[in-house]
Amino acid sequence: MLNLLVKPGWVLAENVVQDRIGNAAFGTFAALLNFTLVLASVSDLGITQHTTKRVAAEPGFLPEYFPTVLPLRGALSVVFLGVMVAGGWLMGYRGHTLMLLALIGVGLLLTQYAQFLRGAVQAHQHFRTDAWLSVLEKALMLGLVLALLPIGITLDRYVTVRTAAAGFTFVLLYGLVTRLFGRVPWRPRRAQAGELLRGSLPFALITLLYGMNERIDMLMIERLASPQEAGYYAGAYRWVDAIMMYLWTVLPLFFAKFAHSLHSREEQRELLWFGQRVATVPLLFVAAFVLFHGELLFFQFKHSTPAELARMTLCAQLLFLNVLVHAFFAIYSTLLTSTSHERPVSWLVALSIALNIGLNVLLLPRYGAVAGALNTLICAIMVSGGYVWLVQYRAGVAVPWALLARLGLTFGGLCAGWYALQAYAGLPWLLESLLAGLAFVGLLFATGVLRVGELRGALRRND
């Protein structure tokens, strides 16, 4: 809930930042940020996930291994900062831009180290404290950005306040961990370090694959098209990232349920059929809204031309079709990864990355941000088809084809009704959206996605 409260404010604040500093400058920042995010996601080589798991399972792990873990994690951060800067130089960044890359990298690595320290807090069941820590950096960045608006915001100032917020959060969290668990001396042992790295590398590989799959587009658009095009893509993708929080909040709940029902195909089937509706239904309406009123997402962009706003709107519409694909099929990936099918899922993601890179190389120089959004959609469709095939034939769980058809029919009916309202009614967008929402609820019952008997049963259980 805390993250859901902070996230909308951060999206709106970033819209203002992009509007003030310009699409090209923000496109450069977005490319640098995404490049560092890919590397920062594996900067600890999976030690964070491995350590959290060990601390939760073995109470004696923390005092025995942390004298090795802390300096090892710090040394890896320094190494990866060097890798980031060297990689940026090889890609053609020079001078001031390379300095910005280093500053962004420092901030991200501090954030990653702070998340690593939060693992110890989580593993010792301090969940309330961890909840507040999870939003501290974002809330602090939001406050600093708002403080910059009256005096004028530039790219340099924006990067500086982001890094400052990450540094403050890291220092505060390090002090908190010391207070909770005592001062941990730094005494690295080679044998322990080797054992940690062997156990953590599988986590690092999976994290790298998913990180590249999500972040590589922005970097390639900036390098192969232009910073301006990267800015258009960033403006659209920001909303996608915010909306996808719904799935990333809901799907972990089903991950645990699928894992618990590992030996019962029937229970997994029931969970899948129930989860299909939970994951898909809300995002059907959101996707339809963006298809018909995507321009409203950019109401804060006062300094962009109508042509620029139209391009960002088209990118948003293509990217929200990608959200729609995930709404239908992301739960199939959740089922597979929770039931020991991680390897074929990883291969699918790797294939998707290769396809995406190939399409980007071919299409980005000519079509820019629009090609990036379209390529993302194509890859999502491809990998989702693989998920469905694996669930049906490898996991042995029946795919709810009839339910998928009803959901598709509902979305088609919603779009047809919305088009009729837009073409013939001439209503204000808010009233039009309200009427479309009422029609959507009716379609859910008419197509059998929701049933009156289920609703009555739920109300009785609540009573």
TrEMBL record:
Signal peptide positions (record): none
Record localization: Cell membrane
The UniProt record lists the keyword Cell wall biogenesis/degradation: no
Annotated membrane topology: Multi-pass membrane protein
Swiss-Prot/TrEMBL keywords: Cell membrane, Membrane, Transmembrane, Transmembrane helix
GO cellular component: plasma membrane
TM spans (from-to): 24-47, 68-91, 97-114, 135-153, 159-181, 232-256, 277-299, 311-332, 344-363, 369-391, 403-421, 433-453
Pfam families: Polysacc_synt (PF01943)
InterPro entries in the record: Poly_Biosynth_Transport, Polysacc_synth
Keyword Membrane: yes
Highest rank taxon of the organism: Bacteria
Predominant subcellular localization, coarse grouping: membrane
Protein name: Uncharacterized protein
Species for this entry: Hymenobacter jeollabukensis
